[in-house]
Amino acid sequence: MAGRPGTRTAARRRPGHGRAAGAGTALDRAAARARPGRGHRVRNVARAAGRPADGRPAGRRGGGDGRPRLRRRAGRAAGRARGGQVTPTNTILIIDDSPDTIRLLSAMVREQGRVLFATSGAAGLELAKVQRPQLILLDVEMQGMDGFAVNEQIRRDPDLRGSAVIFVTAQSSPEAEIACLDAGAVDFIPKPLNAAVVQARVRTHLRLQAALTALDELANQDGLTGLYNRRYFDRQLAAEFARHRRHQLPLGLALIDVDDFKLFNDRYGHQRGDGCLQEVAEALRDGARRPGELAARYGGEEFVVLLPNTTPDALERYGDWMCRRIGALGIAHPGASAAPHVTCSIGLCALLPGPDDTAEAMLHAADMALYRAKRAGRNRSVMAGPEPQPA
Ligand SMILES: Nc1nc2c(ncn2[C@@H]2O[C@H](COP(=O)(O)OP(=O)(O)OP(=O)(O)O)[C@@H](O)[C@H]2O)c(=O)[nH]1
């Protein structure tokens, strides 16, 4: 298959490059040394802690088994939940200013996932943002920023929504326990630490986290195509629009509609219609290759693709290329008006968002362009803007 014209190869950070705070401080090294016989493991984990997986946002990773990405992710999450089996994909972050406690806790939970640690609240927060652990075992009584302050920042950060906090504390009164739970922690582990209790609690919460992740992913997925659904797209569009406005970057949007699809359904039936939508969706998913690009089903036979940091020229090339790709699927559609196979019309909008622009207006502009593409004969893409007047 020919590559998409004018696109850059996805910039991927090389594994092992990039650093995060909390790894390799003097205390971290002391903690590793203090762990008889296993110091190297903790040290290695701490080094790995600074390594972004591949520079792409979670959930947008391509890869090889041919299943839609979202489906693969949901499957993985469900796999983690199934039977409570803990896989190496679980990450547990210990934030504690005592090397002895880190050593002890690491030994207790090391079979339950990849263990990272940080010896201060600030370092722990930075590490958590990069590594997105499922569980954070958070010491309450730390020097500087205490556990409650760290927890508050975790709760406020939308990127850390998927990380559950278990407080670890020597204060075991009912009031202390209630304060931890009221602060939003999922659980509470009392000191002195008991290995069986720690493992049971960690196991339970890893299971719950996996189930929650799977549910969250399903809630964002379109059932027929496995693409993201409109709800998720609208959220991402709002976030990307704000980011592009802040950094003054050009944002691209493509609204894609299958041509004469009613006729296709009438001729071949809804089941074949569904199959056709799935094939189109797969072409769109496969075409969203650059980091941050997102394809979603907008409703019915209409799809939408968000293309971050994309100039009008590049967006026009994308539109033409995607029209050709969908035509090249070669799905027979003898009654269609533009060609004897399935085609699509695409409305494009490229925008450097200014203070008065809105995501809704951008979608509306793309919709108007799509309407013009239909009127001009279908099987084409049209850029939003003033309609060319006849000479
Ligand atoms: N099979 C199937 N059909 C769907 C689905 N969602 C919407 N449709 C059908 O898509 C068709 C859309 O028809 P119209 O809105 O008239 O548009 P069109 O026939 O594609 O015509 P143009 O858009 O003008 O090219 C309707 O027949 C819907 O029933 C779906 O999930 N599966």
UniProtKB/TrEMBL annotation:
**Where do the TM regions start and end?**
none
Residue ranges occupied by any GGDEF domain in the UniProt entry: 249-386
Q: Which UniProt keywords apply?
A: Phosphoprotein
Residues annotated as region Disordered?
A: 1-85
Tree of life domain: Bacteria
Residue ranges, compositional bias (Basic residues)? 35-44
Q: Point to the regions of Low complexity compositional bias.
A: 18-29, 46-56
Instruction: Look at the named UniProt entry and state the broad enzyme category this protein falls under.
Output: transferase
Domain (Response regulatory) ranges: 91-206
Give the matching SUPFAM superfamilies.
Answer: CheY-like, Nucleotide cyclase
Q: Which residues carry this modification: 4-aspartylphosphate?
A: 139
EC number(s) from the headed UniProt entry: 2.7.7.65
Annotated protein name in UniProt: diguanylate cyclase
Which source organism? Pseudoduganella flava
Organism lineage reads as: Bacteria, Pseudomonadati, Pseudomonadota, Betaproteobacteria, Burkholderiales
